[in-house]
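_Per-residue structure_
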Amino acid sequence: MSLLIYAESADGKFKKVAFELASYAKKVAESLGTTVTAVTVNATDVSELSKYGVDKVLKVSNDKLANFTAKAFADVIKQAAQKENAKVIVLSSTTDSLYLAPLVAVGLEAGFASNIVGLPISTAPFQVKRTAFSNKAFNITEILTDVKVLSISKNSFGLVENSSSLSQEDFSPTLNDGDFSVKVTSVEKASGKVTIADADVVVSGGRGLKGPENWGLIEDLASVLGAATACSKPVSDLGWRPHSEHVGQTGKPVATNLYIAVGISGAIQHIAGVNSSKVKVVINSDAEAPFFKVADYGIVGDAFDILPRLTAKLKEFKAHQN
């Protein structure tokens, strides 16, 4: 028996969340007295997983899985879990895994808990702490089934190095035509910049920027911070920025170490989608903007005055650090 994780990758390289998942799984496995097995799909070099405690990798190489298809990938994870007799399967809370987790749970007749924010409170009975009500509260969930599927909130555990001796095994799950009933016709990817999914810092802009011609202020600040850029829903709806940058409850969820919101009033859907970020900084000219109520730090003022000065100070600070 082992604990199984799905280590997500893109273009053959592991996403940061794969290492966070491995770190989390290693601690859980130690409490259960078992080992960690990872299943990977078309990943090129899997050796880095050993740095975070993975003991064994099941390597799946299949051209049919070049693009993500939830049903097919869920079937891969299900068969990997059955092969390893895994009683605990750990997935992340990325967009892909949010589709996968329920399918895996149904396929394995497993109990499923999402939005987990810490190690199990108890393993007998098996209890986990989860966020609830759009991250406004927590609840304790007890999973009664023999097989358990856990979905871990992004950036809730962090990366913990715990080197292990890694074994690798080629794995060829059985896939049928029904697994590919949904066809991927095209994939659009952002290139040449930090992605929202992998970023530790996100700088996000709203309608307070007044137009797409002013977005350079957001990009300049993001560049000096090594951050990803994002936007509110109205900005993407207006066509100022691509929908791939829309964050919030109806866009991409954000759980970064630092989230900077510029010119975003703070609609409840937006706040719900970014509330898991550890530190939230709000810059807005409206002192009554709802976002200030949930901010860790707030600046009331004109973004067109504040952002250039903030960016310049950060550049100066970094220059002295070097």
Observations:
- The first helix runs from residue 16 to 32.
- The chain has a mean pLDDT of 92.
- The chain has two domains: 2-180, 201-321.
